[in-house]
Design a protein that fits this description.
Layout (H helix, E strand, L loop, with lengths): L1 H21 L8 H19 L5 H19 L3 H13 L1 H24 L1
Helix pairs in contact: 2-3, 2-5
Length: 115
């Protein structure tokens, strides 16, 4: 009897954990989408920073290209912001997302350095 209680408890925990990963609030990007968006956002930030412009000018240029980036990716700024808010609350998932982002950016940097 005691063993069956533990088996049921473990199954319930497993089911709850797997549901949490699958069910995203409306308007929140998936993990893979967030990785892609964050890679592109960080590349855009680096490109604008590399222009060495005044802060207000950099902000105008960044906002313009950010809007174009989101259009190209088929998302809205609101969807991006809601997704960031969601994943910031899911700190473990956000860490995993950023691990992928950093790995991808480092791989791109390494590729660019060898060319």
């Amino acid at each position: 009897m005691r063993n069956s209680f533990f088996v049921i408890l473990i199954l319930l925990i497993f089911v709850n954990c797997s549901k949490k990963e699958q069910e995203l609030p409306p308007n929140v990007l998936t993990r893979d989408q967030m990785v892609r968006v964050l890679i592109d956002v960080h590349i855009l930030e680096a490109k604008v920073k590399k222009l060495y412009l005044a802060r207000d000018t950099s902000k105008l240029i960044y906002n313009h290209y950010e809007k174009m980036l989101f259009e190209d990716l088929g998302i809205s700024k609101t969807q991006y912001e809601e997704s960031m808010s969601y994943y910031i609350e899911e700190i473990g998932t956000m860490k995993d997302i950023y691990d992928q982002v950093v790995d991808s950016l480092l791989a791109r940097q390494k590729t660019n350095n060898t060319n």
